[in-house]
Specification:
The chain has helices spanning about 80-90, 125-130, 175-185, 200-210, 230-240, and strands spanning about 5-20, 20-25, 40-50, 50-65, 70-75, 95-100, 115-120, 140-145, 160-165, 190-200, 220-225. By secondary structure, it is α/β, with parallel strands linked by helices. It has 2 domains: about 5-100, Translation factors (Elongation Factor Tu (Ef-tu), domain 3), CATH 2.40.30.10; about 115-240, Rossmann fold (3-Layer(aba) Sandwich), CATH 3.40.50.80. α2 links the parallel β7 (about 115-120) and β8 (about 140-145). The radius of gyration is 18 Å and the shape is globular. The model has no long low-confidence stretch (mean pLDDT about 95).
Length: about 240
């Protein structure tokens, strides 16, 4: 089956959410056939590369969806790749080609308790997951950000606690997330664990969740979103080899 053509979306608004997070609102005619209820689904965004007719694909999450608009949040960093550079400079009226949406990965809302883990690259998906929790949900989220001002106000159930960790050098302390999780009480009942972050942190988390806690695939979603020192193409190769 032939792959569908990418859709061309127009930049409607750009907003700085926190020092290292920038929101780009996309819309236009290309969104007319976009399916409903796609918050936390992923998009493949196409960026041109010098000297090649083949675009670079970069993966991003739909944070919010409204009538004829979607919001995509980008982490900004000093050595940003093509997507972060585009997000930092793009203006309303410009366009971007995208593929997708790809499938959503959400917690199992029928679980007895929840643990949601990630860094800033996963914050859009984490936010949607927390918003999807039932009102009586209990558990924890552990979220790593670059600086304290990157902490966002998230709406969570009363018995669900959010822990923020500050790491000014993302990707250079792979123990930070798992160390915090080890310090939290492991609750009774069936958990639903969702984790997404840097490649080496995912390795540490996977060893803990699968090795020590013996979680099965129905209790755990875990995925590396990026690898320190690698672009997305190199990360994809490393991720496949590590599967």
């Amino acid at each position: 089956m032939a792959r569908p053509d990418p859709r061309t979306l127009e930049v409607i608004r750009v907003k700085q959410i926190t020092p290292h997070m920038r929101r780009v609102t996309l819309g236009g005619q290309g969104l007319s056939s976009f399916p409903e209820d796609q918050e936390s689904a992923y998009l493949k965004m196409l960026f041109s590369q010098e000297g090649s007719d083949k675009p670079m694909l970069r993966t991003y999450t739909v944070r919010y969806q409204r009538n004829n608009e979607i919001d995509v949040d980008f982490v900004l960093h000093h050595d940003g790749g093509p997507a972060a550079t585009w997000a930092a400079t793009v203006k309303p009226g410009e366009t971007i080609d995208v593929r997708g949406p790809g499938p959503k990965k959400l917690v199992d809302t029928n679980a007895d308790w929840f643990l949601i883990v990630g860094d800033m690259t996963a914050l859009p998906a984490i936010s949607v997951n927390i918003e999807s929790l039932p009102a009586n949900a209990k558990g924890h989220a552990v979220i790593e950000v670059i600086e304290e001002d990157d902490i966002q106000e998230l709406s969570a159930p009363k018995n669900f606690e959010i822990h923020w960790l500050v790491n000014p050098q993302p990707g250079e302390n792979s123990q930070m997330l798992v160390s915090k999780i080890r310090s939290l009480p492991w609750q009774d009942g069936k958990p639903s664990v969702w984790a997404a972050c840097e490649f080496n942190s995912v390795r540490e988390l996977r060893e803990y969740f699968r090795g020590e806690r013996q979680l099965d695939k129905n209790e755990l979603y875990i995925s590396s979103y990026w690898k320190h020192g690698n672009d997305e193409d190199a990360h994809r190769i490393a991720k496949r080899a590590d599967a």
